[in-house]
Amino acid sequence: MNDTAIRRIASAVCMLAVLAPVTFADEAVHDLIERIVERQATVQSIQQRGAMTISMVVEGHEEEMVQESLFIYQRPNRLVVDSDMVTLVSDGDHLVVLFQAFDYFIRFPIDEDLAATLLEHEEYLGGIVLPDIAALLSADPQGVLKDFVEDLDITVLDDEERDGRPAWVIQIHVEDDDVELAEAIKVWIDQETGLVSGMRVEVDLSAYADAAMPGMPTSYTLTQRVLSWAINQELDDELFAYDTTGFTEVADFDELADAMQGAMGMPEMDLIGEDAPDFELTLLDGESFRLSEQRGKVVLLDFWATWCPPCVESLPWLQDMYEEFGGDDIVFLGVSVDSAGMETRVKRMLDRFNITYPSGINEDGDIALEYGAFSIPTIILIDRDGVIRHQKIGFHPQGMEELKAELTRLAKAEVATEEE
To answer: Which of 232, 270, 335, 364 has minimal Cβ neighbours within 10 Å of its Cβ?
Structure first.
């Protein structure tokens, strides 16, 4: 699971719980839902920017990731939901889903209303359009909320101010067999709009510290807040425009899956014998690495991430190989696929295992995609002619021994070539 997945799952899970699973025997909760529906009915248009921050404690150090978001809505059918990988835009006539990471988009006509169109494709869009927004868009907001409100223990707390705005406050008590919640989920609901204005979740993983891989978090805190609001203001038509220049249109989600597989090279996972794609990567020490400049050398590429336990487990093996083989004629390069802003975490992980070969962060993942590194770790061996000769996915001691044998063969082949 990558950083993007962590952010998306954390956001979706918590937001699903926001206006969700309650016991309707609790009159206070029932009354609150009535007030939420009443306030949402007054919203004719809204433009808001938000931010979700995930703070993790790893080996006593705190690390942080921030994801900003944009939500724009104008009744009855105009919408923008902008996330890190997917953007939804409805201009009133069509719903367009743009997948920025792969330059594909899907366009659906809005036959009945926007809520019905979203519901038709909820299997794919459920993690993007969250319950409070789904209720706002729906002709039956109370029905939407009731579909989400079953069986969770929710307490209505005293009202508070959230960023200078009055808010209703609820506390959601969650039991989970896999993780320990240090405290319940706390949610702030804006009293003017009936939309979530903030959230805080603390997850304590210290109980699993003994079984955790080195470098894995012992706790994390998710905090969501709205940075700016513009309510019931006239919105420019340009806000709901979309540009598909450079994107390829596909008919439906099945065709999208096929197209994405083709774009990522998944039908041709076996890269052995192919010319290695050239790339340039900025290293953690600020230097630049270009593959084409390594011609005449054997190159080992390790695609990995700090959040990937098998990747972490393979680091000492690679360092041992580097100490045995590394030099002017045999080059090792670690290619981290961690997200932007994770440089400190990557450096700390490498320091922990005394990794001395060069490393850099491929933040947008384009290099990893070119090399078919859809699963990590993926290790690639390239010969002195720039041809891929070995490709190993995952970690297993036997696989590392096979990698070492192939590296030995390529090293000897190079020495033999030089002696000739």
So the answer is: 270
For 367-411, the pLDDT digits (tens) are 988 888 877 889 999 999 999 999 988 887 878 888 999 999 998
- Which of 208, 240, 261 is at the close of a domain? 261
- One domain for residues 289 and 240: no
373/304 Cα distance (integer angstroms): 9
Examine the pLDDT at 292 and tell me if it is beyond 90.
yes
Number of domains in the chain: 2
Contact 88, 77 (CB under 8 A): no
Q: Is the dihedral of CA 374, 380, 386, 388 positive or negative?
A: negative
CATH number for the domain that contains residue 216: 2.50.20.10
Residue 15's pLDDT band (boundaries 50, 70, 90)?
very low
* C-alpha to C-alpha distance for 13 and 197, rounded to whole angstroms: 16
**100 and 144 share one domain:** yes
List all residues 6 or more positions away from 24 whose beta carbon is below 8 Å from its beta carbon: 30, 149
Retrieve residue 195's tokens.
């939309």
Answer whether residue 207 shows pLDDT above 80: no
Cross-strand pairs, 50: 69, 226
Which of 261, 291, 316 is a domain's end point? 261
DSSP code string of 91-119: ESSEEEEEETTTTEEEEEE-SS-HHHHHH
Q: What are the tens digits of pLDDT across the range 23-61?
A: 444 788 888 999 999 999 999 999 999 998 888 877 777
Structural domain of residue 298, as residue ranges? 270-419
Distance CA 308, CA 134 (A): 34
Element of type H or E holding 55: strand 45-58
Q: In which residue are the tokens 């990794």 written? A: 355
